[in-house]
Amino acid sequence: MNSINIDNMGSFLKDALHELKRYIDSNDLMIISSLLSMMSVILGTKVHTSSGSGSKLYSNIWMMIIAQSGLGSKSTTVNTVHNMILSTVLSQNMLNHKAKIKDYKALSKDEKNEITPPNLKQIMSGQGSTFQGMIKALEKNPHGMLTTFDEAGEFLKKFSKDTESKAALTSLYDQQFYGKSLVGSMGKGEDIYIENPYLSILALTNPHSLMAETIDADYLSGFLNRFSIIEIKNLPPRQPFKTMEPQDFSKFQNTSLRLWDILEKQYSNEKPLTLKVDKIQAIYKEWYHEMNTTYVDSEECIQSFLPRQQTASLKYAMIIQVFDAIYESKSLDKMEYIEPKYMKIGFYLAEIYMQSIDEHIKNLADNETSISSKKSISVDKLADKLISYLTHEDRIGKKFTKSQLTNGIRGLSAESFIEALDIAENKNHSITYSSLYHGKTEYYKYYAEKPYIEKDDEEIDYSMLWDDEDVA
């Protein structure tokens, strides 16, 4: 994966990343992913923009960090980022809750019957959370919640067995209303209704647990496609006692706390801070089409991640822009639009995550655990399949992109495509391709030429074989 341009992250994220690296030996993208996850829940349902379809788009994001257990510094990174972003907000929420409980206990019985008992706003849940637990916590906390899994293997295992809860969780990513009775494996029959359910997820795992607890369909069904996946291979060397200075995250903690207070006091679910997309529509459309062209020949499983990241780019921009405003002591009252500067940061991060996802899929293939077990079929047999597919009477002469062929021919992957194509061309000379352009980007379409049928002499119109001036 390409290196991260730290200076291209906005002022809050850039400074936070520099400060965190004084204390932890960690991959930049791992830190950024943890930061964005925790920053997202501060915004919660109090900030939104518009999706491409015109519906409300909130900043909830799902991150999955894959690194070797023990050597990956996953838990250390998440715990340190938690101290920087969420610790003061959680502490204040607990103090406020205790004060409300004290006031509630002082009321008479009749007074207590007239009001709802105070609820702790649980904006964060951790390892062991069930779907029922997440839903019940969200019901009590309309602001939204972040769920973290220090070891996501158990989380993935639960949902691989409980497909009903897995489907319900998947829909929470972009669902604007949740209403269901929690029955069967999901609960004890409680009716739960939540408007704008807001759930961010930060899942940490290792390659072995991920492969053991997921199935091929997870990469195509919409479940894993909702995650921004990073797989850390080359970590910086770890240093014991990297610094003896005490952590001082006060300016970052104060930014989170100020933002939380402003959003709680000045905005609501009914009247959130709404950022319009008027200023960024043109550049977004151009970038959107460029990304489609970039991944036009990718495997289906990689292409299925693309629309999620195209949408997530708006979320990244929104989170970073709002945090920067408070960090730079600006007012949210005058903020009306997603600014082009921040949209470009969103584009940049979405591109980085797509590169990371692409590498993750290739790592699966290199370990001979590729989706659909495509490596198990010999390239020679794949070439025969390619010939058979292209020379079928219903497809002869029709042109297909690489991705259409890898999606349409079982076992054919992007990695084996070129080798299989070479063999197919040698076996059947009608197999060919033509180059096309989308903007400045060249790509190819492959097809089998219609066979030339020689006619009898009397059927040939010789006048079509030369120009009049060539006739003696």
Structure, explained:
The structure is a single chain. The protein is an alpha/beta fold and 472 residues long. It has two domains: 325 residues, Rossmann fold (3-Layer(aba) Sandwich); 72 residues, Arc Repressor Mutant, subunit A (Orthogonal Bundle). Helix content is 46%, strand content 13%. The protein is built from 17 helices and twelve strands. The strands form four sheets. The protein has a five-stranded parallel β-sheet with strand order 4-5-8-3-9, sandwiched between helices. Strands 2-1-10 form a three-stranded mixed β-sheet, covered by helices on one side. The longest helix is centred in the C-terminal third of the chain and has 27 residues. It is elongated. The chain starts with 10 loop residues before the first helix and ends in a 24-residue tail after the last strand.
Gist of the model:
This protein is α/β, with parallel strands linked by helices. The protein is built from 17 helices and twelve strands.
List the helices and strands and how they pair.
Elements: H1 11-20, H2 28-43, E1 47-50, E2 56-57, E3 62-66, H3 74-85, H4 87-105, H5 109-113, E4 124-125, H6 131-140, E5 145-149, H7 152-161, H8 163-172, E6 177-182, E7 190-195, E8 199-205, H9 207-213, E9 227-231, H10 250-266, E10 273-274, H11 281-294, H12 300-303, H13 306-327, H14 340-366, H15 379-390, H16 402-408, H17 414-427, E11 431-438, E12 441-448
Parallel strand pairs: 1-10, 3-8, 3-9, 4-5, 5-8
Antiparallel strand pairs: 1-2, 6-7, 11-12
